[in-house]
Amino acid sequence: MILRNLYTAVWYVAAPLIGLRLAWRARRQPEYLQHLGERVGGYTTQMAGPVIWLHAVSVGETRACAPLLHALLEAHPDHSLLLTHMTPTGRATAAELFGELAPRVQSVYLPYDTPWAVARFLRHFHPRIGILMETELWPNLIEGCRNTGTPLAMVNARLSARSARGYGRLGALARKAFAHLSAIGAQTEADGQRMSALGARYVMVTGNIKFDITPPPAMLALGADFRNRFGPERRVLLAASTREGEEGPLLEAFGRLCPPDVLLVLVPRHPQRFDEVAKLVKRAGLSLQKRSKDVPVMAETRVWLGDSMGEMYAYYAAAGVAVIGGSWEKLGGQNPIEASAVGCPVILGPHTFNFSVVCEQAIEVDAALRADNIENGIQAALEILDNPARRKAMGEAGSRFAQSHRGATGRTMDLLTPLLKTAQPRKPGQRE
């Protein structure tokens, strides 16, 4: 209790800084200054019928939750589904993916983790169950759900050794939070063991829901259209989900190592960096076109900037090989599942600690390979582009790899169904 009170005090003391941070981020994304009342538990959104609440912090989690969201809606036709996020891009992704399901599916921001804001959130929506995608551990939110008898589960949960050490330094605060979760569906045995060591009581290995995402036919068709724009015979190297600090070395190595007929499709992870990355391309002396201009790609263009949202499957489908961002600096990498699902060979950098198991599994079946640095990664990508037989073999291995790991959604539903059947949550302040 003392530690949680100290934690809460830090939130209140930091409140002015949080406001400044939102204002700073709004310089690039004005959407950060929208729906501010929701950040402190003030809502106007109304939901019909019993509410299932699913938290997907940002873009990756929102996309990953799609199979589970549809399974929940199908299994509980009398329920509405509330999606919560922490970022504008997560909210925009929900509108793109699930907008046609409104008003049954609606999105809001999850409030900041203070008891007062959490109580307002629970009082307004009164969810029958809360489901946290991946590893979102908010002590006051967990305590608020415990006090109202609201089951709160964590699904598709992953916890790297590095993150586990960080939670371990929080001591009893983290242990109580893990212990008070109603259930945890872990991606791997190692993830589950690390969470159990931190106090989690009800852990089941359910696998990775992202394997259950089917590449949308519209995205595959768009990928074919991209391929035609590039020129069907042109060699295409995709740099996917790149992060700050990676594009400069990547562009330098690409310009030096790749002949003019190789096209680099460069897709930054965060949309607020599109303009910044365009400047880096010009600074590297490489001719540039942008996806957003929606015009034919000229033969002399060296870099095509993927300045769009929600089209990653199309980029992978159009590419001959992909180097995955976030793995060349110490950022933890990105998930290679989307690339494997459409048969795109993958090159990973040395830093994939956020997705270590799935990356090693992809390497083991020859759907991916690892390079020590970005220069070696570009060289490996060129070798694959120059070897059609190997490129085909890696792509087919990736497709088999993605298909063989499906089924996590069903196992996750098995975990959640008993909680939903017995849930009888109270509103904050309501007596038992």
Protein model, in words:
The protein has helices at 2-25, 59-64, 66-75, 88-98, 115-125, 139-148, 161-168, 172-179, 189-197, 217-230, 247-257, 274-283, 312-318, 337-341, 356-364, 374-385, 388-404, 408-422, and strands at 51-55, 80-85, 105-109, 129-133, 152-157, 183-186, 203-205, 235-242, 262-268, 288-290, 303-305, 321-324, 346-348, 368-370. The protein has 432 residues and is an alpha/beta fold. It folds into two domains: 27-207 and 408-422, 3-Deoxy-D-manno-octulosonic-acid transferase, N-terminal domain (Rossmann fold); 217-404, Glycogen Phosphorylase B (Rossmann fold, 3-Layer(aba) Sandwich). The strands form two sheets. A seven-stranded parallel sheet has the order 3-2-1-4-5-6-7, sandwiched between helices. Strand 12, helix 14 (337-341) and strand 13 (346-348) form a beta-alpha-beta unit. Helix 3 (66-75) crosses helix 18. It is globular.
Quote the CATH topology of the largest domain. Rossmann fold
> What share of residues are in beta strands?
15-25%
Mean pLDDT across the residues is 95
Helix count equals 18
Which spans of ≥5 residues are poorly predicted at pLDDT below 50?
A: none
Number of strands: 14
CATH class wording of the largest domain: Alpha Beta
Terminal CA distance reads 22 Å
- The tally of structural domains comes to 2
What profile does the largest beta sheet have? 7 strands, parallel
User: Which strand order does the major sheet show?
Assistant: 3-2-1-4-5-6-7
The residue fraction in helices comes out at: 40-55%
What structural class should be given to the helix and strand makeup? alpha/beta
Principal-axis shape: globular
The CATH homologous superfamily of the largest domain is named 3-Deoxy-D-manno-octulosonic-acid transferase, N-terminal domain
Q: Quickly give the CATH architecture of the largest domain.
A: 3-Layer(aba) Sandwich
The Rg value, from CA coordinates, equals: 22 Å
